[in-house]
Every structure is written in structure tokens, then in C-alpha cells.
Amino acid sequence: MTLPAAPAALNPLDARATPRVLSFIPPMTQLNTPYPSTAYLTGFLRQQGVDAAQEDLALALVLRLLSRAGLQSVREVVDALPASSAAARSAAVRSFAEQADAYLATIDRTIAFLQGRDATLAHRIAGRGFLPEGPRFAALDHYVHDDEADGGDPLAWAFGALGLQDRARHIATLYLNDLADVLRDAIDPRFEFVRYAESLAMSQPSFDPLAQALAAPHNLVDATLCELALDAIQRHQPGLVLLSVPFPGAVYAAFRIAQAIKAKHPGIRIALGGGFVNTELRELAEPRVFDFVDFVSLDAGERPLLALLEHVAGRRSRERLVRTFVRDDAGAVKLMQWQEPDVPFSDVGTPTWDGLPLDKYLSLLDMLNPMNRLWSDGRWNKLTVAHGCYWKKCSFCDVSLDYISRYEAASAEVLVDRIEAIVRETGQTGFHFVDEAAPPKVLRALAEELLKRGVQISWWGNVRFEKTFTPELTELLAQSGCIAISGGLEVASDRLLQLMKKGVSVAQVARVTKAFADAGIMVHAYLMYGFPTQTVQDTVDALEYVRQLFEAGCIHSGFFHRFACTVHSPVGLNPAEYGIKLVPLPEGSFARNDVGFIDPTGVDHDRLGVALKKAVYNFMHGNLLDQDVRAWFDVRVSRPTVPRQFVARALSDQTRG
In whole angstroms, how far apart are CA 539 and each of 566, 620, 635, 653? Predict the structure, then answer.
């Protein structure tokens, strides 16, 4: 794809003196689509005339391990385990050992099926006679709905008689999850497809656990990852490597990659950045980090990266780096904060997926939740329609940080130019808009521009359920290709929504979500429990509101998350305003984000959370919507104070709130 020339507002780099850049997506992120950070950085750098490439080592690692050759290596490790060891006694490992020949015979074809290259295999997979089944298949017992109606088929209620591809994808995903459990139990106890070694990094004040893990001998997963990383270095010959770590579950692998590169190619410079760095390493003081990487950059990466490239090329001093941690000559960590304006969002350019194997990603179907399915099934072009959040008031959100606080939008014309360029490059028309909350004004203009140009795409994203989303606007969005919307209902309590500064009410959410639903757009509600001062009565009332929203057809999907207080949120910065006391954080020089707190209500939110999740799971499938919500709790609770027809009345009165 031919990208536009570098914006005139930027000073183009001297390509002859600028090092080649290679960006890595470290394990683990998503397996169905590339995480977009490297696509954005690579597209931006190429517009500046920089020779830039990218590799998804998360996908590469899984495809190498989950292949016939990879599973043969796993089998050799399993066969060598002492019979008395805990690993050998693991149910997943025992099942694998007993059925190893069947796994080796089926793995390559199953991966091809999940990549969309062998669709007819669905018939054999769905029949439950082709794939070996391990402990994960016990989950199917929970799906039994009505044995008499479905002839004893535990998946018939979920997929029906014609849902062949979906049924097969779900079964194949359980098969892969069994194999992930084998890797965890027999080879690397930290292994997961998403939260890989997360505990080593998430809100971890000390670098010691990560350092100890990195000092340990390589296991099969480590050795495979390092081999893949060094192969990529050999192919691309970069002078600068960028490691983008969006989540704690990608940190360990990122450091393993850096460790391998430094051991083999000590002259290559390595920079660390991404969402994890931006939220958890803002007070980094641990010098050992710089045994692995040379630079750690904060917030939007474009401006720091331009400065870094000039520095690596010898044209800018270390002191003039932008928002970048380094280790000085005395061994101390210093944050270089040379002041230069950020690259405007309208000038960051078009992301490119060139170099990423778009035909190799896996369409998985793990949770039987329609919104979770969008996260794991199908390859979506991820795009941001605006930088930051236009609302930036929610008290549980990191509103003090750049990725929320600095709001910038681009014109609809620029956005659709980017969309058209991405479709030309990828050949795929599905888009996930990854904004914290896509602005309704921008979405309206975007929809009108898509319709004006006749650009046909399918898209979904996250919004605030604000009253601007009228039936007229939701219908327009649907016509432009909107298929699903998610948004925060949070604790579904007007008192707590006001305390959260959400700027919405339950009645308003009911009307807005119904407008989306009536336009044929799937609606997912992010729900929360355990917010400061939330009482048992608040929780019961919240579940009643949610029940009514499902019953009225306002929302189709939902999930309750446990509230976590972060040091960058208004709750973490001003706990007294929310009636709580923070638990002092331990001393440390590494990660700092989540912080515990003492809530005087003393509610056992973990116990209540089990009931909330069970209830919503059933509501999504139309079960027990007329049941008293108190029946979901295993402790005695008071009846809801919410009127039984609250949502119905809110929908009938379009002039309220």
C-alpha cells in the first residue's frame, strides 16, 4: 500500500542516517488479530521515511508450539517427567499423555480450520469424534439446557442444528485450551494464552520476581520464543527494536526477547513502551530494567520515538529525549523530559499491517458471550477514531494520564481515508474502534462520510451511554455498518453513578441502549461491583436494574467486573472523597498501579460477585428473567428497592432525564 507523504508539520528524518526499526508484539496478546500498537508505529515511521518492520511473536510462539513438531517436543518433556511429580499427576498432562498420538495427528488440521483454511473439517470436529478431549471439555456439562428438547446434546441450545462452524470452533477452542493447560502444568507454570506470567509484573513493586524468572534456565517455551526472536533479528537486521507491552501478561516475554537480543547482538538498541509502561512504570527507579532494555518511553509513542531515532543516530543528546527513562553513567534511572509538542492525532498517519501474517490468525470461540466473541473470533482492523476521552471525568478511570486526558479528534475525511487505505491493504472490512469512549459527534460525522462515499464496513466499539445517542443517530450508525456497541453501566445505581461522575442515569442508559438495540445493534454492558461505599442493597438493586434491562431487550450481553482502584484515578488520588482509606503501597522501584483500600461498609463483594456473574450469564441466554433476583445469592439479602417496572416506565417516558 502507498502511504501518504509525511505531514508537513513534522521534520522528516534523514533516512540514510536513521537505524532500521523492528517492532515486536510480545506474547501474549490476542490470537485472532494483531494488537494495533506496532501497526500504528510502523505506519507512522514509514511516513517519516524510516525503514520499519514488525513481527507478532505472540502468534508465532503459539503456532510453533501448537504444531505437530511443537507437540512432539511437548510430548518428550511430558514423557521425561518423574511419575511422582505434581506435573505428571496433572489431569491435563495425564490426558495428553494418554492421547498424544491423537493430538499429534489432529493439531495441524485443527489450526488450519481455525485459520479459515479448512472449513469442511467443521463436520468432523462438531461430531465430537475427531479431536481428543481433555479436562476442559467438562465445561460442556454446564451447557445442558433441556435434555428432553435437544436429545441430550449439550451444545444444541447454544448453536442449534445449523450452527456447524460455530460449534466446531468452540470445540476446537476447548481443545487448544487443554493444550495450554499441558504447557502450563508440564513446562511453564506461568503459561496462559492471555495472562502469561502476569503476576510477575502487574502492580509488582519489586523487580525481584521478574529478575529471578529471567535468570532461570530456559524451558521449552522460553527457548522457542528466543529462537523466534533471533530469527526475526536475523531477517530484518534492525538497529533499534521496539517492544510494545500493552498488558502485564506481555511483560515477561518482552524481557525474555530483550535478554536474547542483548546476549546475541549487544549493539542493537532496545526500547520498551506501551500501555503497561504508561500505567505501571511512571515512577520507574529500578536500574536492573536497563540490563535488558536501553530506553523506556511513556505515553503516545510518536514524538518520543522521533527523538529516540535522532539520539540513536547521534544527532540528539540523551538529555533531549522526550518522556524517556534511561540509566545514567552513575547507574541511576533518570526520566528525560525534553519538552516538544506531541504529534497531532490527525498527523499520526495510517496504521499498516504489512509484515504481519494476516492469514495465520486464529478465530477462537471461547466464552459463549456475544461480545466476548467479537474479541476472540475473526480478524478485526483495529483503529482509533480519537485520541483520549472527551468525557475524562469517571472517577474509576486513569483520567490523569495522557491516554485519557489528552483528547484530540481527526476529521471524518481523514478517518475514512485511513479506513479505505486499510481495507485496500488487508482486504478485510471489519473494524474495531478501540477508543476509551468514541465521541458521538465524531461517530456521526464518520457515519455520514462512510455513507457519502459508499464505503461498506462492519464496525464496533465502546461508547458512553449518553443521551446524544438518539434513535435517529443509532439508526444512522447502523446504516454505516455498526454491528455492536459496548458501554459502561458500571454499578447500575444512580447514587453510585453520580459518585463515579459517569454523567448518566439508569433511566437514560435504558433509553439509549434500547435505541441501539432497536437499530439492530448488539449492546454489551460493562458492569462493576465493589465500588467504594457500595452496600449489599446497592448490589441487589443493581442486579434488578440489569435484569429489567435484559428483559426489556435493552442489552444483549454483560459482564460484572470487580472494581480495582488505581493510583492514577480520582478514587486513588482523592480517596477521602469516596469514603475510603488506601492501604499503603509497599516500597518498591518497579510497577505501581493497583492499590488496596479499606471500605467502611465491610461488604464481602467477592461472595456477592459469584451471584452477579451467574445471574448475568443466565440473563444473556434468556433464562429466569422473571425470577426474584434474591434467588441468585447464597446469603440472605433484602428485596430490591427498585420498582419492578422501572425500566419499562423509563422507556415509555422519553422526556425524562
Answer: 22, 19, 13, 26
Q: Where are the alpha helices (DSSP H) in 501-642?
A: 506-518, 536-551, 570-573, 605-620
Order the strands of the 21-25 sheet from edge to edge: 52-56, 21-25, 240-244, 269-273, 295-297, 324-327, 333-336
For residues 368-398, b (16+ Cβ closer than 10 Å) or e, as one string? bbebebbbbbbbbbbbbbbbbbbbbebbbbb
Can you read off the three cell numbers belonging to residue 80?
521425561
Q: Are 462 and 487 in contact (CB under 8 A)?
A: yes
d(C-alpha 70, C-alpha 62), whole Å: 9
Q: What is the per-residue pLDDT for 145?
A: 46
Give whole-number Cα distances, 390 to 152, 242, 435, 460, 461, in Å: 51, 29, 10, 18, 15
What's the CA gap between 301 and 292, in Å, rounded? 20
Q: What is the pLDDT of residue 655?
A: 46
| Helix/strand number for the chain, H first, E second | 26, 17
Answer yes or no: are the C-beta atoms of 569 and 399 closer than 8 Å: yes
What is the pTM (predicted TM-score) of this model?
A: 0.91
Closest by CA position to 118, among listed 54, 68, 165: 165
Count of residues making up the chain: 657
Report which residue type is found at 404: I
Q: How far is CA 130 from CA 66, 105, 328, 513, 608, in A?
A: 17, 10, 59, 42, 40
Helix (H/G/I), strand (E/B), else coil: 483: strand
pLDDT tens per residue, range 301-318: 999 999 999 999 999 999
Least confident of 83-87, 99-103, 144-148, 534-538: 144-148
154: Cβ contacts below 8 Å, ≥ 6 apart: 140, 141, 143, 144, 145
- 178: closest CA among 68, 90, 266? 90
Half-sphere exposure of 462 (CA within 13 A, CB side): 17
* Three-class SS state of 458: strand
Q: Which three cell numbers stand for residue 258?
A: 530483550
The span from the CA of 273 to the CA of 293, in Å, is 11
Beta strands in 418-537 (DSSP E): 430-433, 458-463, 482-490, 522-529
Nearest alpha-carbon partner for 528 in 551, 554, 508, 499: 499
Give ∠ CA 40-46-48 in degrees, rounded to 5: 105
Amino acid, res. 294? D
DSSP element (H, E) containing 256? helix 251-264
Percentages (nearest 5) of helix, strand, coil residues in the chain: 45, 10, 40
Which residue is listed with cell 465445561?
139
Distance between CA atoms of 349 and 355, rounded to whole angstroms? 18
Kindly provide the b/e burial profile for residues 340-350, where b requires at least 16 CB atoms within 10 angstroms of the residue's own CB: eebbebebbbb
Return the bridge partners of 597, or none: 582
Residues facing 272 on adjacent strands: 243, 296
pLDDT band of residue 656 (cuts 50, 70, 90) is very low
Does position 657 have pLDDT exceeding 50, yes or no? Answer: no
CA distances from 443 to 380, 419, 625 (A): 18, 14, 33
Backbone conformation region of residue 378, classed left if phi is above 0, alpha if psi is from -120 to 50, else beta: left
The C-alpha cell at 205 is 513493586
